[in-house]
Automatic annotation (TrEMBL):
It is a multi-pass membrane protein. Its main location: membrane. The chain crosses the membrane at residues 132-151, 171-191, 633-654. InterPro entries: ATPase_P-typ_cyto_dom_N (IPR023299), ATPase_P-typ_P_site (IPR018303), ATPase_P-typ_TM_dom_sf (IPR023298), ATPase_P-typ_transduc_dom_A_sf (IPR008250), ATPase_P-type_domA (IPR059000), HAD-like_sf (IPR036412), HAD_sf (IPR023214), P-type_TPase_V (IPR006544). This is ATPase 13A3. Keywords: ATP-binding, Endosome, Magnesium, Membrane, Metal-binding, Nucleotide-binding, Phosphoprotein, Translocase, Transmembrane, Transmembrane helix. Gene3D superfamilies: Calcium-transporting ATPase, cytoplasmic domain N (3.40.1110.10), Calcium-transporting ATPase, cytoplasmic transduction domain A (2.70.150.10), HAD superfamily/HAD-like (3.40.50.1000). It is found in: Late endosome membrane. SUPFAM superfamilies: Calcium ATPase, transduction domain A (SSF81653), Calcium ATPase, transmembrane domain M (SSF81665), HAD-like (SSF56784), Metal cation-transporting ATPase, ATP-binding domain N (SSF81660). The gene is ATP13A3. It comes from Nothoprocta perdicaria (Chilean tinamou). One of its GO terms (molecular function) is ATPase-coupled monoatomic cation transmembrane transporter activity. PANTHER family: CATION-TRANSPORTING ATPASE-RELATED, POLYAMINE-TRANSPORTING ATPASE 13A3.
Length: 662
């Protein structure tokens, strides 16, 4: 293979580039062909947690790996290195360096599209500006009438031609105020300066006025309403398809070699960057809770082998208690426990669409490999053998989620001995993620941010509706919504469970209360929307604040409602307060549905990327009321300036026209 060094500006789609082992800033969008990369994508996503990128499966080695799927940078994000992102470190095969195929360059890349959106932002369709243009157009018509009147009147009075031209054109400049656009931006300029002083930066000043009209705000849950970090509350293991009592600690000696702890030790995307363990906060908390050590192969070790050296995890070496004199036999047993190691052979990264992640690992000295999986409890349970899932699984899960805990389920499967290391590297994840044994639950506590309840109360007092859109469990989200005041204690929450057409039956919606789970309306396919105890959509926003009912639904139900119950969409999204298990594209669909109802919301205000109109230094939602306050101040200033300039022009026009007629 011939390797040459060229300028990044000379790269074109189809080129194969080598990623340096010490990392680089990506000059283009490229799909990873071999090796693994750890990438910081904060420039694009705003998330500071490094992401692991794996190579695109090779269809020639495993035709079933991708099927008839066509590569797309958006769909195959886990295999794509995006322009502008920082590749921190790489892992590679001997003789087969980390290679990536260039797919997009320049303004076609993800970074290029962001830069383009900053340079040429989407035009803001704002009613005040539309009315201003219509008013200016009407002033032009009025000026035209005055112009003709002045010309005719001057000719009849035998005024010289040059005087007629000057006086007639003077009428037009008086009537149509040229300073109007500049004067209307005065409020925006001062609001932007004040926002900068409180740590809110704006790259699209015109949107400040729009913030003054907000009547609905959508919030994410984790990291926005609640703290970024999660604390491990406890674990609840399953044995013989029965839940054991909850346990506070997972690092007890009796569990050291259990499959439950092995899953916690291996099923994550953690990596070491400059000797420091980093990755998803949930994964970090889970791994820290068992007190194990993660060791990655060095560059020198990898170079000595024909394949990527697996990441190894093992229990930390705990010294024997000094108070007790250890016998030789005890010391020997202790040494054996420290030699217990697990190698992570292959990783299937977490997918927000699949709501799970999976790893293939091997215990040192064992012949057969193990598959470990973790993810959303309802998803994990559906992929497990039903005889291993406790009969009270749903009630136990509901009990935790109602209290606001974040629950993760674990599963395990012993793989067949015929699965070699090479076969594992090319196997499809669907072949692994089935017939698993359900192992139990990890219960994480996610505390509310201190500022959240007060900010939401301020927004409610200002008649601004708040909505939670999250990827978390439904009942957990409802619990957090109640805790933070988004749903008041006396308010009822109705869960809309939409079921797609199946076995000849039409799509239907089941309605039930979140607290009792008792059906409150018929599950008949013929839905009478009058049975839904909410006001009609066209009623005023003030009445909406008095509603004692809130709708909640998950992503699957939302998709069915969008497809089969279009007539109910306005009512459900207008009164929906909690949207759980929502995929990223569904969040976009929700925002568009709300905008179709003429709801003004901050769907783009604090988006996590460099292209968001507003960026705040404050890591909480306390910046939202400040922004709305400044938006309202700028809007009222613009409106008052508009009225002043318009009246000033009309009065001057009438006065000058009357004087000229005499």
């Amino acid at each position: 293979i011939k390797i040459e060094e060229i300028l990044s500006t000379d790269l074109v789609p189809g080129d194969i580039m080598l990623i340096p082992s010490n990392g680089t800033i990506m000059p283009c969008d490229a799909v990873l062909l071999s090796g693994t990369c750890i990438v910081n994508e904060s420039m694009l996503t705003g998330e500071s947690v490094p992401v692991t990128k794996i190579n695109l499966p090779n269809p020639s080695e495993d035709p079933k790996a991708m099927g008839d799927e066509i590569y797309s940078p958006e769909v195959h994000k886990r295999h794509t290195l995006f322009c502008g992102t920082n590749v921190i470190q790489t892992r590679f095969y001997t003789g087969e360096l980390v290679k990536a195929l260039v797919v997009r360059t320049g303004f076609s890349t993800a970074k290029g599209q962001l830069v383009r959106s900053i340079l040429y932002p989407k035009p803001t369709d704002f009613k005040l500006y539309r009315d201003a243009y219509l008013f200016l157009l009407s002033l032009v018509v009025v000026a035209g009438i005055g112009f003709l009147y002045t010309v005719v009147n001057s000719i009849l009075n035998e005024v010289p031609a040059h005087t007629i031209i000057i006086e007639s054109l003077d009428i037009i400049t008086i009537t149509v105020p040229p300073a109007l656009p500049a004067a209307m931006t005065a409020g925006i300029v001062y609001a932007q300066k004040r926002l900068k002083k409180i740590g809110i930066f704006c790259i699209s000043p015109q949107r400040i006025n729009i913030c003054g009209q907000l009547n609905l705000v959508c919030f994410d849950k984790t990291g926005t309403l609640t703290e970024d970090g999660l604390d491990l509350w406890g674990i609840q293991r399953v044995e013989s398809a029965r839940f054991l009592l909850p346990e506070e600690r997972a690092c007890s000696e009796s569990l050291l070699k259990s499959e439950f702890v092995a899953c916690m030790a291996t099923c994550h995307s953690l990596t070491k960057i400059e000797g420091v363990l980093s990755g998803d906060p949930l994964d970090l908390k889970m791994f820290e809770a068992i007190g194990w050590i993660l060791e990655e192969a060095t560059e020198e070790e990898t170079a000595l082998h024909n394949r990527i050296m697996p990441t190894v995890v093992r229990p930390s070496k705990q010294p024997f208690p000094e108070s007790k004199q250890a016998t030789d036999q005890e010391m020997e047993l202790f040494e054996l426990s420290t030699s217990y190691e697990i190698g992570i052979v292959r990783q299937f990264p977490f997918s927000s669409v699949l709501q799970r992640m999976c790893v293939i690992a091997r215990v040192l000295g064992e012949k057969r490999m193990d598959a470990y999986m973790k993810g959303a409890p309802e998803v994990i349970a559906s992929l497990c053998k039903q005889e291993t899932v406790p009969v009270d699984f749903e009630s136990v899960l509901e009990e935790y989620t109602k209290q606001g805990f974040r629950v993760i389920a674990l599963a395990h499967r012993k793989l067949e001995s015929k699965l070699t290391w090479h076969k594992v590297q090319t196997i499809n994840r669907d072949a692994i993620e089935s017939n698993m044994d359900f192992m139990g639950l990890i219960i994480m506590q996610n505390k509310l941010k201190q500022e959240t309840p007060a900010v939401l109360e301020d927004l409610h007092k200002a008649n601004i509706r708040t909505v939670m859109v999250t990827g978390d469990n439904m009942l957990t989200a409802i619990s957090v919504a109640r805790d933070c005041g988004m749903i008041l204690p006396q308010d009822k929450v109705i869960i809309a469970e939409a079921l797609p057409p199946k076995d000849g039956q039409a799509a239907r919606i089941n309605w039930h209360y979140a607290d009792t789970l008792a059906k409150c309306t018929s599950s008949s396919p013929a839905i009478n929307s009058e049975d839904i105890p909410v006001k009609l959509v066209h009623e005023s926003l003030e009445d909406l604040q008095m509603t004692k009912y809130h709708f909640a639904m998950n992503g699957k139900s939302f998709a069915v409602i969008l497809e089969h119950f279009q007539d109910l969409v306005p009512k459900l999204v207008l009164h929906g307060t909690v949207f759980a298990r929502m995929a990223p594209d569904q969040k976009t669909q929700l925002v568009e549905a709300l905008q179709n109802l003429k709801m003004f919301l901050n769907d783009l205000c604090f988006d996590a990327s460099v292209a968001s109109p507003f960026t705040s230094r404050t890591p909480s939602i306390s910046c939202v009321p400040k922004l709305i306050r400044e938006g309202r101040a700028a809007l009222i200033t613009s409106f008052c300036v508009f009225k002043f300039m318009a009246l000033y022009s009309i009065i001057q026009y009438i006065s000058v026209t009357l004087f000229k007629s005499h």
